[in-house]
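Risk register update: the risk of archive-format incompatibility is retired. Evidence:
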Amino acid sequence: MRAFPDFDDNLRQAFRQETELFFESILREDRSVLDLLRANYTFVNERLAKHYGIPNVYGSRFRRITFAGEDEGRGGLLRQGSILTVTSYATRTSPVIRGKWILTNILGVPPPPPPPDVPALKEKSGIGKDLSMRERMAAHRANPACSGCHQLMDPVGFSLENYDAVGRWRKVEEGTRIDASGSLPDDSKFEGVAGLQHALLSRPEVFAGTFTEKLLIYALGRGVEYYDAPAVRKVVQEARAKDYRFSSFILGIVNSTPFQMRRSQ
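Archived output:
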């Protein structure tokens, strides 16, 4: 029996189109790249709106929807089904994968690879009681070989636990109210996706630096090296003065020394 019988290829394609249209809007409107995290709008058709619980959306055409609140709203990459699904397993969420994704792609501090022969996550307690995800992960971290990396990833990923493995909002898991409290590696604590968003945006230069590195990798066709760091810092510094608009990053990279001195392949 499938864990999520309503999940099909139509929904998968809708997830992808939502994210593509959202990113395109940031680029074409030359918005701040911080809107990738904080935007209060997204794009949905009837299929996706029904999945998200958004009323009064009909037909296959995608349209832009703006939200008044942020706790259960959509918008921003952290609330989109595409990200929430690819950072989950087929049958359940994964605070580990979600935490690793944020550390790697938002904060630019990827955790170390797991040690060999990591034991599988236990799904049940052994006495017939279904454990919450937080309880199962606590038991998993009791293994000294697992605790080091999980102390970094899990607290970040738990803040997204209000979204199930296919991105639907929920408040209860296995009959127990979900604890979506979390923290970042700097020990700043918060509650849920809204708290995570505020914590990430409290130091916008961190995300801006990661964004610059990713864009520079795309522009150069190679990885970022230590000697590229001054160029990255300069791009971020100049972009800050322009409210981190998308165009400021593109112009900064095009005018940077690594891009100007790149070799043709």
